[in-house]
Amino acid sequence: MKNIIGIVFIFCVVNLSAQTAGIRIPQLPLPEVKMPQVPNPYNHQLNQQQPNTYSHDEIKHNIHQSEAMINEMYEMMQRREAIEILTERGFMSQSDLDPKGTGYFYAAFDEINAMLKGEKPLSLERTVFLVENAFYNNSLDYSEYKKFIRQKTDLCERKIGEEKLNRNNNMVKNMMLFRLISDTLLFKNSATESTQIHLPVKYDYDDYNSKVSYDSHFVTKLMRTGIGQCHSMPLYYLILAEAIEAEAYWSFSPRHSFVKIKDEKGIWYNMELTCSAILSDAHYMNSGYIKAEAIRNRLYLEPLDKQQIIAELLIDLAKHYHARFGLDDFYLQCADAAAKYLSCDINAIMLKTIYQESLTLYLAELMETKTPEIMKQKSPEAYNHYIKMQKLYKQIDDLGYEQFPDELYVKWLNYIAQQKEKAEQRKTFLPNEIK
Amino acid sequence: MKIKFIYSVVLFFSLLVSTAYSQTPEKYCFDAFSEIESMLSGKDSLNFKKAVFITENAYFENQLNEEEFDNFIRFYASFCRTIMASGNIVYKETDVERASAQCAVFVFMTDSLPVETNDGIVIHMPFEYNFDDFAGQKEWSNMFVSTLMETKKGNCHSLPFLYKMIMDELKQDAYLSLAPNHIYIKVQNKRAGWYNIELTCGDFPTDAWLMSSGYIHIDALRNGIYMDTLSLKQAVALCFVDLAHGYRAKFGLQNGSFILQCCETALNHFPNYINALLLKAETLADLYKQSTHDLKNADLLNQMNELYAHIHHLGYRKMPQNMYLNWLNSMGIQTVNYRIKSLLVNQNDL
User: Fold this and answer.
1) Cβ within 8 Å, pair A285-B347
2) A298: alpha, beta or left, given left = phi > 0 and alpha = psi -120 to 50?
3) In sequence order, which residues have a C-beta less than 8 Å from that of residue A93 and are 6 or more positions away?
């Protein structure tokens, strides 16, 4: 029976780590075993007070044995201390290890949180910059970033003017952005009478899930390279929409995100930038295997307004922090702050679950408890963390979250491979391209 | 004189009979109403099977035999237990009992089964879909479980009701779930999670398929008016609207009060029950058409408009009749394989 529970326990954990693909499960090292620095009293005693009745080899053997015993004791003490601290306070703060690096994250958090609290105006442009810049140790240039956005919005304005469309119409602005990001646009230069070409953002077939390089889903990477995926493309769109004052929303489906817009009659449309299409709700439900419960609990296909988007970006900040430094209170702080502003806080719960799961497993490893029952016997306090983890699992289940079926994901991966091949065949050189 | 006397006696009796007739049949409905109401108000315990029986019996003017009705359910349940015990159901998770009950009742209702009897092997035939009168338009009792028992022909009302009753008898959970003009079953097991059972064509449609083919707006899902699991209380509340429909089929609108009372009471216990809202709005519309007083008119019109706006806001969109027929068609003609394939093919557009 205990074996079965143990297996279920492990299975749950494996399952959850699969659900949160893209998030690195921490590989925390065990505490290092340090050699004791004190002189060996056993050795001293032998030499000084008693005649040596043992052979040289025997003494050596005894010394080794006692050293090993002391090491073991020392390690045990260290372990016990680590277990106590972890049980009581959770993971230690990472700020001492890299005060500068973590400091950038804390500053970003403070500024974003001030926006959410209403102390500062909400700015998506600024938030995305803060979140990504913290990951890069504040090495990005904000004025360059802003300049890039102005260039793109100028192009939109120019095209709207060229086509004599209504500049103040929300739909016009949104459709122009959609074209700018997902279609090839031609611009006539009246001075030189030449035609310039603006290319759409390309889909990142090589690293759409940030496996090769963590920053592959960053908007600033999209800006640098002109390639993006289902996280960076919608955010890029939304930043530009904010800049030209177009109303647009962010929305999620399993392992995916996209843009939602609303027309004058209040009818919603889903903009799929990765394949340049407007798709129905049913399409997302079908392709994402979404069940009715998930819609009812607002997990998916829910339009997020600017405040909610910024709250979701705090979740991103936590993930970047995790990738750079690991887990600690700051990670939870981001989750808690974000949850306050979200109509569905599944992503915040996910963060808490990852934290709680890592802590429980780490404790289990330190305590050498193979099943939750043994842990309960050894330390009811540590077992509380297991209970907390189970509660979080239940919260996730109750929200109607279900894992994306593997066979569908494999199908989707095959499709990506095909599309990649096609895209490579299409590669052409364009001399008049606007960068 | 003598002839006249006899004539008047006949007249007297016929009057007596006809007055009795014009009162009593309606009374069955009123009685049924209060019986179901006492279940929902907590005076009696909630019992879905009994509530459905009461509703159907009222329509048949107490001509149904409850014991026989119960016996049918018990017989079906024991048949399903035999299927469960046959060893033909392969399921490897820990909730075997639950999953095999779900499977057994499904197979019992939708598939032909060879049964060993004293006279050799007999084939037990599945229940059929009543294509001639799927909405009870020709005869309201075609919606009934008792009719299903008698004729073995049912629809998206009686078939899921029966599935739930058999599952209840087996002490297993099964939930009714609403779609536009439609009821189906939702169940859960460890291997599949939540899934849908469509008994009219013996299939397991996905939520996405129900949503797109059933003409369901996403707001209807968000507000839980469709595709949610119904609690026992909600399932019993459905009977009020069925009772009202039966009443209307028999006696017409009358002054509308009984139908409206049914709707109101259903809504008290199941506030967003879309079919109660729709029937209420429809009844108000009919009353509006009948009424002649200007004052009453304005009030009815306001009430009706408000209600329709509320219904729209909840995410209800009326499905055009042709579309509904096409939908029924798609369930009947297309093979299961085809539908599964069409679901998978669309993955490519992600």
Assistant:
1) no
2) left
3) A328, A329, A330
pLDDT tens digits, one per residue of A308-318: 999 999 999 99
Q: Which of A268, A283, A295 sits opposite B346 (nearest CB)?
A: A283
CA-nearest of B304, B298, B278, B289 to B253 is: B289
Beta carbons of A291 and B193 less than 8 Å apart:
yes
pLDDT digits (tens, 9 = 90+) for A38-94: 333 333 333 344 445 556 777 777 778 878 888 888 888 888 888 888 998 899 898
Cβ of residue B209 closer than 8 Å to a chain A Cβ? yes
Note whether B340 contacts A: Cβ–Cβ < 8 A. Answer: no
Which pairing describes strands B120-124 and B113-117: parallel, antiparallel, or unpaired? Answer: antiparallel
State both tokens at B155.
Answer: 């629809």
pLDDT at A332: 96
What whole-number distance in Å separates Cα of residue A109 and Cα of residue A123? Answer: 14
User: Residue A34 in contact with residue A72, Cβ under 8 Å?
Assistant: no
DSSP string for residues in B189-217: ETTTEEEEEBTTTTB---HHHHHHHTT--
For chain B, the domains span 25-344
Q: What is the Cα–Cα distance from B141 to B131, expressed in whole angstroms?
A: 14
Q: Map out the domains of chain A as residue ranges.
A: 122-303+405-426
Does position A289 have pLDDT exceeding 70, yes or no?
Answer: yes
The whole-angstrom separation of Cα A283 and Cα B212 is 8
Of A193-202, A397-406, B110-119, B341-350, the range with the lowest mean pLDDT is B341-350
| C-alpha A309 chain-centroid distance | 14
SS3 of residue B188 by DSSP: strand
Dihedral of the alpha carbons of A152, A153, A157, A158, in degrees to the nearest 10 = -20
Q: Chains A, B: CB contacts under 8 A, how many? A: 63
